[in-house]
Amino acid sequence: MKRILRDHSKDRPYRLRQGTVPASAEARLTSLDQREINRLQQNLREVELKLKQRNEIMEALATQNVEAACETVLTILLQLLDVKEGAILLYRREQLNHFVAQGIDEMELIEKDLDQYSVLRRAFVMRKSVQLPIGDQFESAIPVQSPSNGQVVGLLYIRHAFPQFNLEQVGDLLDLSRKLGMTLERHLLFHQMEHEKIKTYQLLDSIREAVLYIESSGEQIYANQALLNMFPPKLVNQAQGFRHAYERATSLFEHVDQPDALHDYIGQLMNGDIPGETIELSAFRGNLLLSAYAERIAIANVEWGMMLVLRDVTKDKELDLKQAEFVSIVSHELRTPLSSIMGFTELLMKREVDPKRQKRYLQTIHSETVRLAELINDILEIQKGEDSTHGTQKEPLDVKQLMFEMKPMFDLASRAHRISVQFDPGSYRISASSEKMKQLFTNLIMNAIKYSPEGGAIRIKGSNQSDQLRIEISDEGLGIPEKALPYIFDKFYRADNSDTRKIGGTGLGLAICRMIVLDHGGAISVQSTEGEGSTFIIQLPLDA
């Protein structure tokens, strides 16, 4: 058998020919690699730039107010789209509220918004993106919608030369539209909350009672303007707009005369126990009287805090005291003449009296009746003057002329007195009620006649002092004791001495005079020396 031998030399692996790559081929390879690297680096830079721009848009929407953010966003958006003309329009209640534009005339933009066939109005009404040709260019409007209700709250307007956006540009536009819609809604909610907060503050500030609101956590304290006025803190920085509610609350405890009682009351409130009754407090050493009550503030059965209301009852208490005093004095003053009338009437009814005594009794009854009528009239006059709802009708009045017209009546009132009227040169025109002025001068002159029983001179002198009219009414009568001068214009006050006790009167005449003078914006005072006479001084503002 013939054996075939294999030639293993043919099984050697393939080997490259020894030598170097040609220089031209190596250069071509290097150039291709470098171009690819440069292209990749350029793409990377573009991606980094776009990422930076998108981050800047996010930062602007998150940190800037809406108007400033739109300026920033529009600039970056036009860079992303590689166009130069565009605008962002914002709407509130379907009306254009604000817009920013680059490369587009503002009036042109406003006219487009008003044109119902424009790309802007179509996008707004249809709530979808709209593109229309404009000459050799195109214009596109992309609606910005509220995420909660789909209402159009803005529009992105772009003017471009290319017929359509690429996918990346479409993504940028839609993403920006969504983010801008979220931002606008967030800002709208914030402004609504601020508006409601301000409205709540204004409502609380409009309340005349002092209000202190404390949240259940104790972290938030609010004091309304009435409380700020009632308890001013030691340090106030109103220029920075701080309400200093905590300082007011602290000041409240410092100035209340019963701090422990108030502290216990507020402690009950914070523990959820709202007392139904009010508590009576005083502050500033009894100069301020307060009535306090509290209300729990709960929303959807969740307790948020409590409101402490402090009502200034100082004037009410003073009025109650004055009314009680007035009733007591009136009762006493009425009882005196009534007792005389009843007593003498019973004598006449039950006993036989001689004509002479009967006449004396009847004269006493008549005089007491006259006194009673005068007292009732004066009380009604006082009551009418204190009632602020009855305004005095004023008109131009010449006081000098009025006084000379009244002089004959004063002369007839007493033959034992010499009444003189003297006025310095000048104008004596004031704005006043003629009837009230007659009542004022009649009361004062009849008072001068009454309290100078021995007669004498009564001098009426008028002078003009810049913008003030001054009238002095002097007598030579009994005078007023020095200790009685501070109270002479008080209701029912009469100087108590042996001479004046014999002279009748209601004790309301001078009180009525003061009331009339004050109602006319003037002042009244008296100078007197006991045993020598008195001078009453009236000052009233002259007409300009």
Automatic annotation (TrEMBL):
SMART domains documented for this protein: HATPase_c, HisKA
InterPro entries in the cross-refs: BphY/WalK/GraS-like, HATPase_C_sf, HATPase_dom, His_kinase_dom, HisK_dim/P_dom, HisK_dim/P_sf, Sig_transdc_His_kin-like_C
Compartment(s): Membrane
Catalytic reaction annotation: ATP + protein L-histidine = ADP + protein N-phospho-L-histidine
This enzyme's EC code(s): 2.7.13.3
Main location: membrane
Pfam families, A to Z: HATPase_c, HisKA
Molecular functions (GO terms): ATP binding
Domain Histidine kinase, chain residue ranges per copy: 329-544
Species whose genome carries this gene: Exiguobacterium indicum
Key words of the record: ATP-binding, Coiled coil, Kinase, Nucleotide-binding, Phosphoprotein, Transferase, Two-component regulatory system
Keyword Kinase tagged: yes
Class in the EC hierarchy, top level: transferase
Protein's name in the database: histidine kinase
Coiled coil: 30-64
